[in-house]
Structure formats: structure tokens, C-alpha cells
Amino acid sequence: MDNVELLPVIMAGGSGSRLWPLSRSLYPKQFLPLMGKDSMLQETIARLAPLPCLSPMIICNEEHRFVVAEQLRQRHYDHCGIVLEPVGRNTAPAITAAALMALELQSDPLLLILAADHAILNPGGFTDAVSRAIPVAEEGKLVTFGCTASTPETGYGYINIGKALSEEVFQVKGFVEKPDLETAEQYVKSEEYLWNSGMFLFKASAFLHELEKYHPDILAHCKEAIEERSLDLDFVRLGDAPFRACPSDSVDYAVMEKSQNVAVVPMDASWSDIGSWQALWDINRKDDNGNVIAGDVFPQSSRNCYINAQHRLVSVVGADDLIVVETKDAILVANKHKVQEVRHVVTQLQQSARNECLQHQEVFRPWGSHDAITEGHRYHVKKVRVKPGEKTTTQVHYNRAEHWVVVTGTARVQNGDKNYLLSENESTYIPIGSPHSFENPGKVMLEIIEVRTGSYLDDDDIERLDAPDGYL
């Protein structure tokens, strides 16, 4: 691997329906700490450390941009671009845009394509497989990674491996869509089938060459989207109209299943795409009764359950094969063998315009975040956190007044035509109609308790007076 540098492309889109209520459409599973203290996105970047990698490129939905930026900042991770899709168009257009931009950064880099929402319990197996794939990709092959099929999964695609090209590198005989249980059981018994992980390694030029043969319309639309891109703070916005016009296809369907230039490297890394609560139970450490416990939980006479308490004590008595997930604003109780139906609950919430499917009570902004504490008739209480050196926009509310109390740090406040500092335990009052903002001039996080009072308290009662495009 001497002098070889990989450019990781991390796809961090996703709708957040299968792991509800922890996962929401504005805060899907890739941003959650499902396996430890770090989020899945942070873990994905961390496992690149043993490999010769450049700073990663992140592809994400526009509405997730501040979450991505904040999670990278938390771990001091550099990046070579946070690329915003104006609308989801599956993996082929996302990877195409990344390949075109990568050719502007390097002469012809090797792209390591990863999903931000996959769990890998054996990172050494991941490193080993990628290392074995590098010389094959340098020769111009499109390399996919097939994971050891340990159970007959019907929710995964499979790769049928062909003849050996070199040690532990094989031709791809074919790709198989999600099989029925009987077929999946046959695949597990065979040594010729691997799970399709959705991870790839190839030269940017090699991928674009194959794409032009099999799906030139995707390439044409993505070239236009790159030409019309714009910069917004730390983000790269792809051209809206051409990207929306791009066909929505997976990279497997658009290129990999059609190309004759594909190789597969087996990966024994204890991989999972964590596609359900059952899958999360499968890969987590269990107690003597087979329970997976997270948070403040008392399981009594219960077996083989997944119980996750985010904010309160949760007791489960006499239950078997149960999923229990508690959050501030929603609780899920489900049979472990029926968890695929969780997405139907999310669909019903969407149809009812319920906020519980959209976002958590903590909402991220470019300057920090705000988290709902309580609300009632004519009042809302929130905890607001402002990062050092950051400032909110100057804004006006026409239906509510606000009371601010500084809990931690120092705030520089604009209140109408007055500017002043507030220290810990000091407070101020913002009347209806008064232009206002607050800034953190210090070196530690600023925390404020905000109490809204008035006849209308929703976030759309706002006029921003100095906000650049894309700023909230």
C-alpha cells in the first residue's frame, strides 16, 4: 500500500423509519450512538484510522447538514467536503457526484465507498479486506465487498462468487436480490454466496467509465449538478434542477450488476446494516437472560428482550422477545419478531402529520442546539446551547415574548437597541417585536434556559433580519 491514498466517500443519507423512535427522519440511525458512545457516522470515520486515507467526503441530505458538521466537530474530524443532495436519488447519483468531485481533488483517486449506518464488530477484518482490495482496484477493477453469510437473512442481497482472480479475490458470477427464507438457507450452507455489503473500492475514472456505458443519463445529470454547485458555509450544494431530474437508481442496479469488470473481496468483519431492532439485539452483548439493556432498566423475569431507556426508569416484567424503546416524546413496545412493521407506524405518523416521526426534541442549528423541556398553554421552556464563538441570527417574534436565564457561560445579548453581557444566574426579558440575538464570546459552551410566553409559540413565528442563505 506504499504511496496509495484512499479517498473515503461516506454516504450519510437515510430516512430513519426502521429504528423509530430513536431514529427520526431529521435524525436517522447514522447519527445515533447505537453501539457505544460514538454515533455510527463517527464510528465509520474512526475505523478508517489504520488505512492510508485522505480526509473523507460526506454525502448527506440537506436537512442533515448541521448534524453532520456538529458530529465531525465533536471528534475533530477533517473532511474534504460535505456534499448536500437537494433530494434523495439513491446511491448511484450520490457516488457519481462524489467521483466527479474527487477527480477535481486528485488525479484519479481510489474511492472507498462506505455507508455511515453499518455496524462492523471486527474492524480488523474490515481493514484486512480493504487492504487486499487495493491492488485489484488499482488495476481498474470495480471491487465490492461480500460479507460472510452467517445466518439466512432475507433482508440482504447476496453476491454469487466465481473463479479466483488472486488470493481471496474473486470474479462476481452474479448478484441476487433479497431471497426467500428457503433460498437464503441454501446460500448460507454454500461457500459461493456472500452478503452484499454495499461497500466498494474503485478508481473514480473506472466507475465513471462503466457508468457511461450503462447509465449515461445519470452521468450527464450529475455533471450538470456539479457545474451548478454552490458553496454554503462549510457545505457544497449540488445543482437543484439537474439533480432532481436524475434517475433514482442504486449503484448495484445502475453499474455493478451490469459491468463485466467487477471483483469481490470476502470480508469477515461481523458486519450488519442494523436494519431493524431485531438486528440490533442480534449484535449487542446480552445478559444471562438474553436481554440487551441500555439506560436505566430493571428487567424482571424477562428473556431475550431489547430494552432501551433514554430518559426514565423502564421496568419490564415477565416478557419474552420484546422490544421496548423509551424516548422523551414516544415509546415503542413491539414483538421482536414483528419489528419490520415499525415502518408502518412511521407511515401512519407521517400521514397524521405527527412531529414524532420527524425529529427529536433536541434540534441542531449552525450555532448549537435547542432542546424542549416542557410546554403548556401559552408557554414553552427550552434549553439552548450555543457553541463558543457562535451567534444566533438577529430575529423578531410577533406573538411571543422570551425570558432568558444563563445557566453556564457568558452571553452577549442584543435586545432592541441595547447590547450587554449576561453571566451565570443572570436573566433578561425580550419583549414582543424586539429584534434580538445572543452570542457566545467565551471558551465554554453557553447554556440558556429560554421561556417563551404568548398567544402563538411555534418556531415559524420568526422574522430573521440578517440570515444568509441556508442559515437557521
TrEMBL record:
Q: Which domain of life is it from?
A: Bacteria
State the reactions this protein catalyses.
alpha-D-mannose 1-phosphate + GTP + H(+) = GDP-alpha-D-mannose + diphosphate
Question: A GO BP term, please?
Answer: GDP-mannose biosynthetic process
> CDD domains given for it?
cupin_PMI_typeII_C, GDP-M1P_Guanylyltransferase
| The EC number(s) this enzyme carries | 2.7.7.13
MannoseP isomerase/GMP-like beta-helix domain ranges (all copies): 302-349
**Chain ranges of the Mannose-6-phosphate isomerase type II C-terminal domain:** 354-466
- Gene Ontology MF term list: GTP binding; isomerase activity; mannose-1-phosphate guanylyltransferase (GTP) activity
Which UniProt keywords are listed? GTP-binding, Isomerase, Nucleotide-binding, Nucleotidyltransferase, Transferase
> Which one Pfam family would you cite for this protein?
MannoseP_isomer
Family matches, as InterPro entries:
GMPP_N, Man1P_GuaTrfase/Man6P_Isoase, Man6P_isomerase-2_C, ManC/GMP-like_b-helix, Mannose-6P_isomerase_type2, NTP_transferase_dom, Nucleotide-diphossugar_trans, RmlC-like_jellyroll
Query: What residue stretches are annotated with the Nucleotidyl transferase domain?
Result: 8-288
Pathway of this protein?
Nucleotide-sugar biosynthesis; GDP-alpha-D-mannose biosynthesis; GDP-alpha-D-mannose from alpha-D-mannose 1-phosphate (GTP route): step 1/1
The entry's family comment says: Belongs to the mannose-6-phosphate isomerase type 2 family.
Q: Which NCBIfam families match?
A: GMP_PMI
What is the protein named?
mannose-1-phosphate guanylyltransferase
Organism of this sequence: Photobacterium proteolyticum
Recall the taxonomic lineage recorded for the source organism. Bacteria, Pseudomonadati, Pseudomonadota, Gammaproteobacteria, Vibrionales
